[in-house]
Amino acid sequence: MKATRPANVITLKQALEVAEKQQYAIGSFSPRYTSMILPVLRAAEKSKSPAIVQISHKELVRYGITPAEFANEFYERVSSENITVPVVLHLDHTKEIGTIKDAIEAGFTSVMMDASEKNLKDNIAASREAAEYAHARGVSVEAELGMIGTTDFVETDKDEELYTDPKEAKLFAELTGVDALAVSCGTAHGVYMVREPKIDYARLQAIRALTPVHLVLHGGSGVPAEMMAKAISLPGGGVSKVNIATDLELAFLGAIGREERLTDAECKALPPELLEVGQAAVESTVADKIANFLGSKGKAESFKA
Hints:
Layout: H1 12-22, E1 26-29, H2 37-47, E2 51-55, H3 57-63, H4 67-80, E3 87-94, H5 97-106, E4 110-113, H6 120-135, E5 140-145, E6 149-150, H7 166-176, E7 180-183, E8 188-189, H8 201-210, E9 214-217, H9 225-232, E10 239-244, H10 246-255, H11 264-268, H12 272-294
Helix pairs in contact: 2-12, 4-5, 5-6, 6-7, 7-8, 10-12
């Protein structure tokens, strides 16, 4: 655990309360490689935008990173780069309470318990356990209801999709006490290759009408900007957190002329000049998302009001 957390490193709940009121979304960016945390933070700082830096349990395993290694790199870069915008360190899709405990110990300010493949009763029980543990330590909790499809299986295992039921969302929020809820309404993790992205706005509005929790949209990569803008600005509060992972990795790999994913160690071993090319591509992608997709450019000021 970080002994003294910088004042601008905040919880997910703190971040989304402001974003929802002001009708913009905060990007939850998955660098996947620890070397890509730097360009994400740089883009947020230059754009004067709040940002969430995240990694999932499966990504930790796939890329060979521990929660402590990811958190240490995050805090070191926040310090060395003099990052002043509000930032959240978030553990994304995780099914194991042990990983959540490790992340909280390492200094993560937000965690996600994803028990969406379980039945409603068991999902509620697992999410409530995570919420009680995290809240006692000043950490926010996200959960998932419904099932969000995938096309690349890095973050989640399933490619099936089960839309979130608004009435179940109301019950789920009341019984778990989570701070944010990832809802399934048409998007998918990964790259859209066959089916077109779509967003069920009526379902989002029905969920919002019945529950006060902040809404999260996973599968932000590849969704048209105008579609996302509508989801963010729904009356009464739309989507406040959008997950973006695949677009960052594609930008990085494309810039360095690679097609196959690397491990974190392989990424660190790249020649410095090549690594910088990759970092520049990630920074540019994040800056573009902030300005043209999320509506969060210049919004760091909204936290001072």
